[in-house]
Amino acid sequence: xxxxKKMIHLTIDDQNIEVEEGTTILSAARKANxxxxxxxxxxxxxxxxxxxxxxVEVEGRRGLATSCIxxxxxxxxxxxxxxxxxxxxxxxxxxxxxxxHRDCLTCIRSGNCELQALAIKYNVQNVxxxxxxxxxxxxxKSPSIVRxxxxxxxxxxxxSTCKKVxxxxxxxxxxxxxxxxxxxxxxxxxxxxxxxxxxxxxxxxPTGALHEKDDTEKVLDKLYDKDIxxxxxxxxxVRAGLGEEFQIPIGENVQGKxxxxxxxxxxxxxxxxxxxxxxxxxEEANEFIDRIKSNxxxxxxxxxxxxxxxxxxxxxxxxxxHLSTCKSPHQMFGAIIKSYYAEKYNIDPNKIFxxxxxxxxxxxxxxxxxxxxxxGIRDVDAVITTRELARMIKQKDLDFASLEESExxxxxxxxxxxxxxxxxxxxxxxxxxxxxxxxxxxxDVKDIDYEAVRGEKGIKEAKLNIAGKEIRIAVVSGLxxxxxxxxxxxxxKSKYNFIEIMACPGGCxxxxxxPIKSSKIRSTVDVRKYRADSLYSIxxxxxxxxxxxxxxxxxxxxxxxxxxxxxxxxxxxxxxxKKQEKYNLE
Length: 586
What we know:
The protein has helices at 25-31, 83-98, 114-121, 157-165, 200-204, 216-223, 236-239, 255-265, 273-294, 306-315, 329-344, 362-367, 386-395, 417-420, 427-441, 479-490, 519-524, 527-541, 551-561, 567-573, and strands at residues 7-12, 15-20, 55-58, 65-66, 77-79, 138-139, 145-148, 172-174, 181-183, 210-212, 229-234, 269-272, 300-301, 352-358, 373-374, 377-378, 382-385, 459-466, 469-477, 498-502. By secondary structure, it is of the alpha/beta class. The chain folds into 3 domains: 7-81, Ubiquitin-like (UB roll) (Roll), CATH 3.10.20.740; 96-212, Alpha-Beta Plaits (2-Layer Sandwich); 217-573, 3-Layer(aba) Sandwich (Rossmann fold), CATH 3.40.50.1780. It has a 5-stranded mixed β-sheet, with helices on both faces. A hairpin with a 2-residue loop joins β1 (7-12) and β2. The longest helix is centred in the middle third of the chain and has 22 residues, at 273-294. The protein starts with 6 loop residues before the first strand and ends in a 13-residue tail after the last helix.
């Protein structure tokens, strides 16, 4: 019998509140819709009370209490905005801003910066303790991520995320006193460290100290070039996140408006990366079936996530043969556009400029990997994130919310529901199983919703019976969980046949290039669920829900690739992986 937790009664700002014993004052206040500001706090990730923005007054006690770590007590009377509390918060802001360069007009996070929002809220018009500033190094060597020291407020949210969530520890607080900063081992570039470019540190950063490498100017420059064909392809998770940048509810599917916006920006064609996902499923399912029939290397592990691939190359180089050789959907699709599509419509592939709109900053790194090309022609020419696309739309002065709906361009815009769910954890596995089951069973299997691989758990597992064979599967999101699974694979203890791994907890809908949510929203709203539900809704409403039934895919195989796993398919749609050193100290 489950033991009932003791309930605590307290008063916060004259409201009587009842919460479970062990609840913090901050959590109790938020349950009552009472706002207490925070800077360093991230629920379940960074709860150290370092910044002191969340201080409150507790009657009968000396000094102020740090609400994010102070537990409630029976009869406690709390004041969240007394004169002494407001004065203390202003002092914290003043000291924080004294070492901040405050170049808000040119900051990538202007308008979505937690420090800026608090400065406005508390009417900070000057900085009393302004003085010497700490060092102002900018690390922009990586193709994916930029570190700007002068905007760092030492909240350590990025450090905790990298350590506790991803189990990488690429960054930490170094130095002492005034010389303290967040940096890498040996103060080397993130590009040369064990960082995998997942971007979860960006999502946790309250300021502009960490942000994606901005490629909007590169793309805008090409959009003015009338001598090339500009093609955009959009990942499934983008349509479930882009609207948030324009005050549209979290997770709302804005596919039609997104396509219109891309057309207005100057793209000649707008295609759906979901179609590329369908090709990935065809190749991956075929590879999985071949491994089963030949009793080859098991478990097979998905390779759609470039941050996970980089993690594997750096941490588990002896296990790389377990990874599928399939390229990720956008790289596959870029290769198809510059081969089949170019040939079909008599276009010089050198005259095609492919831009991938992704929820992920690691895709920027992936697109420049040396193996992602054929005959000197890159699969993908540029990658921009959901946030970067939003900035381009705003620069164009497009009223996104009022844009009309448009459809993806034929013939490369027809995708299945299976392609759509790639954007959430478990989606790749579910889509692959739909196709693998049909092929192995030799029939059109009707039960195609694999509920066991859905949901927010970091490690999900299931046993399935397909064509008389027991298939053990696992779905993993977050690199801390991936390390657990891979340690078993390395030790020869893995019980699975097929494993899906995504670097970002929750999958691509929570990628490092998606709209950034404040710590308060992250603590009170299940953003992942809203975005994931949007993709599942697309799948449920799709006329075709299995990748191998996509008529565009069937036609392209017939006209160009012959069949999944063919020599030509391997040339354009597959790749290989190599050991990478954890640190490049040259």
